[in-house]
Structure formats: structure tokens, C-alpha cells
Amino acid sequence: MPLRMPRLRWLSTSLRSSASSSRLSLPLMGCGTWAWGNRLLWGYTEEMDEQLQAVFKECVSRGVTLFDTGDSYGTGRLNGRSEQLLGRFAQAYKGPNRDQVCIATKLAAYPWRLSRRSMVAAGNASARRLGRPVDLVQMHWSPANYAPWQEGPLLDGLADLYEQGFVKGVGLSNYGPESLKRVQRKFAERGVPIATMQVQYSLLSTYPVTTLAVKEVCDEFGIQLIAYSPLALGILTGKYSEQGPFPKGLRGQLFRQLVPGAKPLLQTLRAVASAKKKTMAQVALNWCIAKGTIPIPGAKTLEQAQQNIGALGWRLEADAIAELDQAAASVDKAMVQNIFQTR
Q: GO cellular component annotations, sorted alphabetically (predicted)?
């Protein structure tokens, strides 16, 4: 029999998910909250909170009800800030689609997390920051590439959270098809379904799908594929050219390397967007949807959220998708892959 971990004393019945037996409700598109609390890469300041709450309201009211976060989101003393903000916004929101809000968090495979108990504690800590149950709990990355002995206990803890009724579903992130099959077999022995899989996927990062063929495995097991960084950190918005100006810091360094080689793709994307009377970002997101994934673009302003939402309610034609596919395949230097992505 699987070992059941004791629940933490602080966690009240109200923070347990009453819907672990019900299905997750996932929309066509979600919202990523990596930037909410991240100063190093995204320049977050606490003065942005009011605007971020406006983003949350706009998304939920328009049917974008999936919010993806992580217990590692936020830099320095702001670690966990993304979860805290989401919890605050969700509790304050009283508008349309309130009951459909789905908060997904990712638990990091930190080197000091070595047991299933530590993973259960991490999930409970996320629920405490949110002030509500976690709907979807995900393994942020696999330590299989550097500490394979660590992975088993952490996966057991992930399954414990589901079995104990704290979450509606479990998912994975940055797993390739081989490792996904291995985890699926492990979870199947306990009767724990894998609801979702996240990979970095966009017109500038097709590797997990075209090379690793991870979507084929997801389809085989009924796992929904989620596309993170679907706008390639902003490159696919068309805001940046070879001449710049580029963002400050690490993003700027990366853009200087990638934007010149992505020029043919960006030209094709711009042409398709013009023909469809859409923005480049909207076309890039709609392409992800057409490929059977749920994109989770980030948004720091109401304008960005509204632009992202404009990717919904219409569909790219087959010829436009084929044109974009061809342009994506011809890119000289694609997006840098996540170092934790497994095969």
C-alpha cells in the first residue's frame, strides 16, 4: 500500500481541495506569472501590483482562467511572491468565471528536497501562500539529469498530494517522452493520472514537439500539453528588431543573439498577422493553440493581457499554419532550451 503522509497541522479543511475527484477545467489559453515578483529578469516592483491585479481581473472575466505559477517564482526575499499575489487576487475577485479559476503551481526540485514528505510540505506551503487549495500541482523539473536518485521520492510526494485530496490534478514540466513514459508507469501503479505536461514551446522553440515528439506521448496518455514562453520571452511580439533597443539585463543579451537569426520567421509572422488583421503576438499564440497546446503567455500590464486575449475566438487556416511551420523550421538559432529538459 502507498504510504500516506500526515497532513500539516496548520492546513485547515478549507484549504483542502474538495474537488480532487472532479476534473480540472482548463481553458484554451492561460496566463503565466513568472514575472510577478521577479526583479532580476522582469524588473518587478511592488508598485506593479495594482496593474497585475487588473491583469488577473481581465483574464478571468474573459475566460482565461488558468494561472501558472511556481514556488520558486520571485527573486531574493520576494521568493513565493507570485503565489501570494495570485492568492490575494483570487480571493478579492467577484466577477464572471470566478468558480472556474484554476491555479497551477510548480514545485521546485531543490537539492534540499530529498523526501516525499518534503514535497508534501512544499505543496502545503504553496497552498498557505495562496490562501486556497492548489488546483494543479506540477513537478517543476526533473533532477534525472544530475541527481536521478532524488526524483523518485519527489514524485511520490506529488502523488501523495493528489491521493490526500489537496489538489485536483498533478502535472509535470520539462519532461521528454522517455522520462514521461517512465513517470506515467509509476503513477499508474497508484492510480494517479497525469493531467498536464509543460514544455517550452513556440515558433522559436519547437524542439520538444518536433524533435522529441513529446506531444505524441501526451496524446497517447490523454495528457494536456501546456506551452510556456509561447512568445519566446517577447521576441515574437515584433517589438524588437536587429537594431534594438533591447531589454536590459539577461533578456537583452539573449535577444542580441536570437533576433538577427529569427528575422525570416519574424517577417513571415508579421505578414500573416497583417493579412489576418491581428498582432504578431496573437498569431504566435493562435499557432500554439492550433497545435493542440494551451499557451500560457505572461502579462505585466492590462494592455498585454488584452492583446493576449485577442488570440482567442478565431483560428489560423491550414495554409497559414504551414507557412509559419516552414519559417520556424528555417530559423538559424532557435530559443535556448531549458537546461532541465529531459529526453
A: cytoplasm
